[in-house]
From TrEMBL:
One of its GO terms (molecular function) is DNA binding. InterPro entries: SpoVT-AbrB_dom, SpoVT-AbrB_sf. The keyword DNA-binding applies. Keywords: DNA-binding. It comes from Methanolobus zinderi. This is AbrB/MazE/SpoVT family DNA-binding domain-containing protein. Residues 7-51 form the SpoVT-AbrB domain. The keyword Disulfide bond does not apply. SUPFAM superfamilies: AbrB/MazE/MraZ-like.
Length: 95
């Protein structure tokens, strides 16, 4: 189970931007970290891309299994994006 390391209030700007408070950035999102925003109906999560790719490794290896379920152009584009990031992550992991 994930441990909560901080809780801070932020304000969303007119452009939809937020600033991650410095003390929280240091622990989870050091400079240069790639992140993923996961939107639910009642909240959003910001996760490091590496975390998402590790959790989805099984799904990424099972593209054929999802082929019948994922049939919209938007889902295809999202899948291609994930595959691209997964390949880059695997290259970096080997170095």
């Amino acid at each position: 189970m994930d441990t909560i390391v901080g809780f801070r209030e932020v304000t969303v700007s007119g452009k939809g931007q937020i600033v991650i408070p410095k003390e929280l950035r240091k622990t989870t999102f050091p400079e240069g970290t790639q992140a993923v925003v996961v939107a639910y109906t009642d909240h959003m999560e910001i996760r490091p891309l590496s975390y998402v790719l590790e959790k989805m490794e099984c799904a990424l290896m099972s593209e054929t299994a999802f082929e019948e379920e994922w049939d919209s152009p938007e889902e295809d584009k999202a899948w291609e994006n994930l595959l691209e990031h997964a390949a880059e992550y695997q290259r970096k992991k080997k170095d």
